[in-house]
Amino acid sequence: MSKMNKEELNKKLLDAAGKGDLEGVKKALKAGADVATVTVNRQTALMRAASSGNLKLVKYLAEEGGAGADIDVPDDSYWTALMWAACKGNLEIVKYLLGKWGASVAIEGFTYGQDEVRWSVLKCAIASGNIKLVKYLKDKGAR
Prior knowledge:
It is a single chain. The protein is mostly helical. It has a single domain, classed as Ankyrin repeat-containing domain (Serine Threonine Protein Phosphatase 5, Tetratricopeptide repeat). The protein has eight helices and two strands; from the N terminus they run ααααααββαα. A two-stranded antiparallel ribbon has the order 1-2. Helix 3 packs antiparallel against helix 4, helix 5 packs antiparallel against helix 6 and helix 7 runs antiparallel to helix 8. The chain is globular.
């Protein structure tokens, strides 16, 4: 990976994060990828990792990769890593992002289409079908 340019390394990082590939993420970062890089929709590696469902990868990016400082940074649709994890029904990642990093349950995103639809973290959890996650988020003040 060391012979790749920065743009290629950043793409490798984002691709690996989206696949839940911890080793691929480590290699990309070690080779010089920027943990703060984003996709064309402004999704971060942390968002993609949260969506992949790999808790170890989320922890690595937040703690070792330095992505924890940007825990509530939104993508173009104002979705955060917490919202991506909630929509995938991943209670453990949601607990980690809330408990360790204090992610906000108050942020709302939207989806594009004929009509703009607002999404909250709670609405994402409900859509995932994970009842334990819905209860947990309600207990944490999500609306």
